[in-house]
Design brief:
367 residues, alpha/beta, flat, three-stranded antiparallel sheet, Rossmann fold
Length: 367
């Protein structure tokens, strides 16, 4: 008798399910590129299918479209009766961005953002110490406590005193408030290069990371063009570039106002841009100069950078441009603020943003 033989389990293949899953990944990318326009994304997907044969005779793009509606990714229940994506799809797009950009982190301890301090934190550590007044009951180590009771009082009759109690130390984690500024000026799509899609993909990944892994942290997202305004996380897939100049001053003023309302001590600003500030708002009038670094606009921008430094708010600038003229401005801006600057391409933007976020989490500001 040969007995049992074990091998790796190979699940039965379902052509339809495999096709839907593979098409869904492409569809999510297309939705990000089309700012949530379902019709345009489906047209692009159909063209890709014709060119690369994404489907087969058993399962076509029409079947995929019906499955999207049946599974709750698309809906027609709106005032206009148009096909739109659902909150389920918005969450799926964010999860897809998180997996694409930060997926390599899920199997490591990197990014827990612990400090060298311990106390009434969230995560138990390997350290055991004697009980002190004020310790939480859930910190008591039952194994060590019972062992102490037996050693100190014998095995004949169980007896427990406060001196027998030992507790498991917990790691203290810092709480961080972040404002992410995204440039949506017209230059983000100039010269045949789509810079806004990677920028908002990174924003979605960062948002999903913070809301799922660092739930005590806060993230506010603002966009800036001629003006600046706050957007919700759910609005990110629909974000588009407009016919705007770059009013960095408005973005920084709004970011500082949002951080002023946050009560925790660790605060920071991330700014994703590809150009120099070219606009100011004076009353109801816009002062614009796209031809160079206008001293009036530059001085106002640098003054805000210095003000952020006095408030202990570092600004990390992710410059998606290689122009030495623009890099010199970023270096001056960073020196005045005391923050960080990265001259990144579109491929490594996510890695750089996460590393800076993780690094800043290690410090604890004392104001």
């Amino acid at each position: 008798m040969l007995g049992y033989r074990f091998s790796n389990y190979q699940p039965p293949q379902s052509k339809e399910q495999a096709t839907f899953d593979s098409l869904l990944k492409i569809f999510m990318q297309l939705l990000n590129m089309t700012a949530g326009d379902v019709g345009e994304a489906m047209r692009w997907l159909t063209n890709l299918d014709r060119k690369y044969g994404l489907t087969n005779d058993q399962y076509g793009i029409g079947d995929f479209f019906e499955d999207l509606k049946e599974k709750g990714y698309l809906t027609e229940e709106n005032e206009r009766g148009e096909i739109e994506i659902t909150p389920k799809t918005e969450r799926a797009i964010r999860r897809s961005a998180l997996e694409e950009i930060f997926g390599k982190l899920k199997n490591s301890r990197t990014g827990n953002h612990q400090t060298t301090q311990s106390g009434t934190g969230d995560e138990p550590s390997a350290d055991i110490r004697q009980y002190r007044f004020g310790d939480e009951l859930d910190q008591i180590s039952m194994t060590e406590t019972l062992r102490n009771a037996q050693i100190n009082h014998g095995l004949g009759e169980f007896f427990l005193t406060e001196e027998d109690l030992e507790v498991v130390e917990k790691e203290y984690k810092t709480q961080t408030s972040t404002v992410l500024m995204i440039d949506i000026s017209h230059s983000m799509i100039l010269y045949g290069e789509d810079r806004i899609t990677p920028a908002k993909k990174v924003a979605m990944a960062l948002a999903e990371l913070i809301t799922t892994k660092y739930k005590k942290d806060t993230l506010d997202i603002i966009v800036f063009g001629n003006d600046a305004w706050q957007i919700e996380i759910k609005d990110l897939p629909y974000l588009q570039v407009g016919p705007y100049h770059t009013n960095t001053v408005a973005g920084l003023e709004l970011a500082m106002d949002l951080l002023r309302r946050r009560k925790n001590k660790n605060k920071q600003i991330f700014m994703v841009t590809d150009g120099k500030p070219t606009c100011l708002k004076e009353g109801i009038r816009y002062y614009k100069n796209s031809f160079g670094l206008d001293s009036k606009i530059l001085n106002k921008t640098l003054n805000l950078a210095a003000q952020c430094r006095r408030l202990h708010i570092p600004i990390t600038t992710f410059m998606i441009a290689s122009d030495p003229y623009l890099q010199q401005f970023v270096r001056e801006f960073t020196e005045v603020n005391g923050g960080n600057a990265y001259f990144s391409n579109l491929q490594n933007l996510g890695d750089m943003m996460f590393e800076d976020y993780r690094r800043n989490k290690h410090r604890t500001k004392r104001l």
